[in-house]
Design a protein that fits this description.
This protein has one domain (3-193): Rossmann fold, CATH 3.40.50.150. 36% of the residues lie in helices and 19% in strands. It contains 7 helices and 7 strands, in the order H-H-E-H-E-H-E-H-E-H-E-H-E-E. Strand 2 (70-75), helix 4 (78-87) and strand 3 form a beta-alpha-beta unit.
Length: 197
């Protein structure tokens, strides 16, 4: 499935379809975002500039801002960004498919968060997005990515399927980009942006 098709599917999705917790109601949806923001706060320094790429309507963005982070919400869906802006008019939003991320964001970030995005894209698109995210984070900063590996990697064929990566392929990309894996208790991959090898 092409990146353009995935972006169109997300933009046209009913808000109830974008996260399973929404089936339980808005309170559950918001609580899931607060829980993830609290997990992220265990590794992201207080007051940091954080890019939430794939922010959607702000499920994680808003609680990160409430925790005192300077958050920029980036998404390819104008509809989701409009819903985010309705919920929190003061949040900086950037409409981008990720191909021009640093130019759109305008300055290097202390951390970039990318949850439930890479899993929906083909590996080539995912690699390009990780490259853009790395370019957007200052050296020494953090990337927190929902980027699963598997001994039997597969590519998603629809926007609701999950792409997994071969661990060696992922490690090679990280080395080329300058991403050092960190050992954390988070359910996502956490990397320190370092000088590429």
């Amino acid at each position: 499935m092409s990146a353009a098709n995935i972006i169109t599917a997300w933009d046209q999705a009913d808000p109830a379809a974008i996260h399973p917790s929404r089936d339980l109601g808005e309170d559950a949806y918001d609580a899931s975002g607060r829980a993830q923001a609290n997990h992220l706060a265990t590794v992201i320094p207080d007051g940091a500039r954080v890019l939430d790429f794939g922010a959607g309507d702000g499920r994680v963005t808003l609680p990160l801002a409430e925790l005192g982070y300077q958050v920029t919400a980036a998404d390819s869906s104008p509809r989701m960004l409009a819903r985010l802006t309705t919920r929190a008019p003061g949040i900086t939003t950037v409409h981008t498919d990720g191909t021009d991320l640093l130019a759109k964001v305008g300055r290097k970030q202390d951390a970039a968060v990318c949850l439930a995005v890479l899993i929906h894209h083909a590996r080539a698109t995912g690699a390009a997005l990780v490259t853009q995210l790395r370019d957007t984070v200052k050296t020494g900063g953090l990337l927190i990515l929902d980027w699963p590996t598997s001994d039997h990697p597969e590519e998603a064929r629809s926007w609701l399927e999950v792409t997994t990566w071969d661990p060696a392929e992922q490690d090679a990309l990280c080395a080329r980009l300058g991403l050092k894996a960190l050992d954390t208790d988070l359910p996502w991959s956490v990397y320190r942006a370092v000088k590429p090898t």
